[in-house]
Every structure is written in structure tokens, then in C-alpha cells.
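Batch manifest, entry 17 of 40.
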Amino acid sequence: MLHITLLTPHAETPTYLLTCGHTWHRTVVDPTHPATVQDALGNNKPDLILLTTATELTLSSAEILHHRTDAPILASATLADSALPIARYLEDGDIVGLGPLAQTIHMPEGDVMCYALGSEGAILTGPLFAGGLAEHKANRRAVEKLKTLPDHTMVYGGGAIEQPLITLLNAAHAS
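Output type: C-alpha cells
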């Protein structure tokens, strides 16, 4: 069982802590406030840092958290030219181990990478559904690709904290 905890409710890119209930493996998604993450972890360190987007805030925060904890950063290959110390570049369909749970990376084409937590019926979408980003031409393919997931999938991300995917897809289609 994977516990999904909202650490910072940033309007566009909230920070989540994913904790495996079996191994206590901890993954931070989109750190926007490294001190808040470290406070939530206490004496523990994250095992991974995942990025859904390449905003200045997430990049600088991920770098700070990496240097403080030595947790590897995983992100899209679109960051290959950045100075960020990326341990692994992810592509569509890649599997990332979160404790004993192997989760599929759902990498839509566009500005945002999503992490489908299939065994948990959840997807982390970063800022995809915040501020009309789903309507941008580059992200329309992402929204189309998300339609292949079950309607009851719960979305965790900016503008969509714990909402059913079907609700967000209908709203994106209507506008």
C-alpha cells in the first residue's frame, strides 16, 4: 500500500510524499519547499525525488533537497541540458520502484510528466490541470493519453487535489 501525503498545497505544483506501507521507502514528488519536506521526513531521508515539471521553483528545490539528502532525482529527458544532477532520465512506460511497488511512468508528450500509480488507482499530474495548462497545444496529447486510464483514477496535482480523472477530463474537453 502506498500512502500519498500532500506536503505543500501549491496552487500549480503541490509537493507530495509517497510512502510505501511495507518498506517505508519515501519518494518526494515536485519539492517546492525543501525545509517543509525535511520537516515532514524528520530524521528520515527520501529515497527518490521525482519531477513532473521543470519550473524554476521545482528545479531549485529539487537541487537543494538532493544536496541535503543525497536522494537521486528522476525526471524527463527534456532536462538533459540542465545543470540539475539527474540520476535517471525517464521515458514513457518506464517503471520506477517505490518500495516493493513498481509503478509505471506515464509520459505524455508536452510540458508535464505524469506518474501513474496503477496499483493505487492514482496519477500524479503536477501542474497539468492548473491554470489552463491542459488546454495548451503541447499538453493536449497528454490529456488524450490520460483518457486511457480508468475513469475512477484519482488525480493528485495542481488544480486537482484528489479529484476523479473523469471529472478533470470532462472539464478539459468542455472548455
